[in-house]
Design goal:
about 375 residues; 6 strands; membrane; Minor histocompatibility antigen H13
Length: about 375
C-alpha cells in the first residue's frame, strides 16, 4: 500500500527540468513539445492495453489454481486517498528535513531491485522466444522452510529455470545502466514495467469499488495540485522510476536532452486497473466482444489528451485524474445505460462464488 501511495505522489503531468536550476532550462519548441506529449501519450496507453489482457490471464490462472485473490474492498477504496495523502505529506516533510541526495540514494537502491524484477517479469516471455531450441535449459526449485515436522512450513517456494536467469541478467544490466547514468530511457523502461505489472496484478473486483477509488483520488489529486505545492515539489524531488519522462528538447539535443515533461505512473495504473475490470466484465458477458473495454480505453485516451491540451494552454501543472476520472467512469457507464447493461455491470464481481447476473442473463437467453 505504501509503494502505491508513493506512486500517487506524482499523479500529475507537469513540465520540469532534471536539474535543480530551473532558470537553466532550454525553452521547448512547439515541435519538441509535440514529440514529448505524443511519446508520453503512447507510453501511457501501451501499458494499459498490455496490462489489461495480462490481467485476464492472471485471473484465469488464479481461478484454476484455486488461489483466492487479494482485492480491494469498499472500505479500502475509501481509505486509500487518505492513506495516500498521509504518505505524500510525509515524503514532503522528509524532503524538507533531510538531504535530497541521501534520500534519493536510498530510493535508487530500492527501486533498482524492484525495477529489475518487474522488468524481468515482462521480458521473460520475449527472451524465452529469442533463445534457440538448443539452449541448455534446466529447471530449479528453491525451497526455504522454517520449523520442524508438523510445524514445518514454507517461507520461500520458488520454481525457475535458466531462461529466467538469462532474463534476470539482461534486466540487471539495464538496472546497472540506470544506477550509473540515471538515463531517462532506463527510467522509462522501469516505469513501463511497473505500470504493466500494476495493471496486471492489482485488482478491483467490482465496478462500484472502482468508482469509490477513482472518486476519492479525483478529490485527492485536485487538492494536492491546486491547493498546495506539495505534490509538485515531491514530483520534482523524487528521483525514482515512478514516472515516465520525455525530453521536450530532444530534437535539439538528442538523447542528452534535459528539459522533461513527465507523467506519474499513478495516472496510468489507477485508471488502468478499472479498465482491466471492464475487460473482464466484457468476457463474462460471453458476447465475443470487448465493447466496454474499448469504451474505457478510448475514454482514457480522451481524458489524457484533454489533460495535455490544458497543460499546454495554461502552462501550469495539472491533476490528470481531474480529467481521467470523469471520462473513464462516465463513458462506459453511459454506454452501459444505453445498452441496458448498467445493472449487470455494477453487480459483476470477479471470483464470485455465485454466477454473475450478466452470465445468468446470457445463459437464460441461450436456453430460450
Amino acid at each position: 500500500m505504501a509503494d502505491t501511495a508513493n506512486e500517487q505522489a506524482v499523479l500529475n503531468i507537469t513540465e520540469t527540468n532534471a536539474t535543480a536550476n530551473e532558470t537553466a532550462r532550454i525553452p521547448a519548441t512547439p515541435e519538441g513539445m509535440a514529440v514529448a506529449y505524443a511519446s508520453l501519450f503512447l507510453m501511457a496507453i501501451l501499458p494499459i492495453y498490455i496490462g489489461c489482457f495480462r490481467s485476464v490471464t492472471f485471473h484465469k490462472e488464479q481461478k484454476e489454481s484455486g488461489e483466492k485473490p487479494e482485492t480491494m474492498s469498499h472500505k479500502d477504496a475509501a481509505m486509500f486517498p487518505i492513506i495516500a495523502s498521509c504518505a505524500l505529506f510525509g515524503i514532503y516533510i522528509v524532503f524538507q528535513i533531510f538531504s535530497k541526495e541521501h534520500i534519493n540514494l536510498l530510493l535508487t537502491a530500492y527501486f533498482f531491485f524492484l525495477g529489475v524484477l518487474a522488468l524481468s517479469h515482462i521480458a521473460r516471455p520475449i527472451i524465452s522466444r529469442l533463445l534457440t531450441a538448443s539452449f541448455p535449459n534446466m529447471e530449479y526449485h528453491f525451497i526455504l522452510t522454517q520449523g520442524k515436522e508438523e510445524k514445518k512450513e514454507d517461507v520461500v517456494n520458488y520454481e525457475f529455470d535458466r531462461k529466467d536467469l538469462v532474463s534476470l541478467a539482461v534486466c540487471g544490466l539495464i538496472g546497472v545502466w540506470y544506477l550509473w547514468k540515471k538515463h531517462w530511457l532506463a527510467n522509462n523502461l522501469f516505469g513501463i514495467a511497473f505500470a504493466i505489472n500494476g495493471v496486471e496484478l492489482l485488482s478491483l473486483n467490482k465496478v462500484s469499488t472502482g468508482c469509490i477509488l477513482l472518486g476519492g483520488l479525483f478529490i485527492y489529486d485536485i487538492f494536492w495540485v491546486f491547493g498546495t505545492n506539495v505534490m509538485v515539489t515531491v514530483a520534482k524531488s523524487f528521483e525514482a522510476p515512478i514516472k515516465l519522462v520525455f525530453p521536450q528538447d530532444i530534437l535539439e539535443n538528442g538523447l542528452a536532452a534535459k528539459n522533461f515533461a513527465m507523467l506519474g505512473l499513478g495516472d496510468i495504473v489507477i485508471p488502468g486497473i478499472f479498465i482491466a475490470l471492464l475487460l473482464r466484465f466484457d468476457l463474462s458477458l460471453q458476447r465475443r466482444s470487448t465493447f466496454y473495454f474499448y469504451a474505457g480505453f478510448v475514454a482514457y485516451c480522451l481524458g489524457l489528451g484533454a489533460t495535455m491540451f490544458i497543460l499546454h494552454f495554461f502552462k501550469h501543472a495539472q491533476p490528470a485524474l481531474l480529467y481521467l476520472v470523469p471520462s473513464c467512469l462516465g463513458l462506459p457507464t453511459l454506454l452501459a445505460t444505453l445498452k441496458g447493461d448498467v445493472k449487470a455491470m455494477f453487480e459483476y464481481e470477479d471470483h464470485s462464488e455465485t454466477p454473475s447476473p450478466a452470465k445468468e442473463t446470457v445463459e437464460s437467453d441461450k436456453t430460450k
